[in-house]
Amino acid sequence: MRYLQGDSFGGAFVVGNVLGFGLENHKDQRRCGDYYGYFSKGELLGILPFYNMGSCIPVFEEEENEVIASFADIMKKRQFQVLIGMKKFIKPLYEAILSEKGTVRCQDSSYFVNKHFTPLTLEDTTFADANEIDKDEAVEFIRKAYWEGFNHEYTPEEARKIVEQRGPEEEYLFLLVDGKIVAQAYIQAVTDTVNQIGGVFTLEEERSKRYGKAIVSELCRRIIVRGKMPTLSVRKDNTPAVKAYAALGFSHHDDYLIVKYKI
Which pLDDT does position 7 carry in this prediction? Predict the structure, then answer.
């Protein structure tokens, strides 16, 4: 934890998962996994986790070629669906395993932090946590959101785990209009200083009504009340989202990279 907290943004996912679910791999928990550490002369220089949900989220000292080579050797032997994190971590590993892993797509993104929150509220909208509404309705919206928004298919059981396996600060929030769910967003990583927002999705027929912006604003408000900083990642070519987040007070902190692989 001392090592991870040296980079509160780059290590946010890993910190949140360790704090919430520990280092032991419980196979029924999506956010548990196998953790590898690289040590030199007794000093920890990098952490390579493979989570049961299919993600690999490494953190290591920059310019450490021995760490990159060691982690790449492990990654070539492991199955995972997505490699995700700050570009400074992901790019060298992506390049090191390129000949061994079939890539579906590589998503160039920005990691945003919000130091100047400017809230947005909309009339005739309400917010509800996933545990406050009909479970089947929540599950179906989550499945639709992941398929249409992120090209990822979840079974009903997997979608239920997304709702159930969450920490106390990890709200899974829906925006409702006239009782109908039209948008979602949630806290996907929690540290002692940061809450990272993810999963932002609005129904296609309800877009351009600022619902996504409003739900992110509500999560930012809750995060700041907790005394923490809101962060998120966004595709660089998603101009509407970039503009919406900037209007809420977010600004670019670092380059971010998401690589999806064939299984």
Answer: 85
The DSSP letter of residue 1 is -
Across 102-124, average pLDDT: 96
Give, as one character, the DSSP assignment of residue 262: -
Q: What is the pLDDT of residues 165-212, one digit of tens each?
A: 998 899 999 999 999 999 999 999 999 999 999 999 999 999 999 999
First to last CA, the chain: 31
Q: How many other CB atoms sit within 10 Å of the CB of residue 204?
A: 8
Among residues 83, 46, 47, which one has the least CA distance to residue 64? Answer: 46
Is the predicted pLDDT of residue 63 greater than 80, yes or no?
no
CA atoms within 13 A on the CB side of 171: 21
d(CA 174, CA 77): 39
Q: What residues form DSSP beta bridges with 254?
A: 111
Nearest alpha-carbon partner for 119 in 250, 235, 228: 250
H helical segments located in the chain: 12-21, 65-77, 87-96, 135-150, 156-164, 211-225, 239-247
Bridge partner residues of 197 (DSSP) = 187, 232
Give dist(CA 85, CA 161) in Å, integer. Answer: 23
CB atoms within 10 A of CB 55: 20
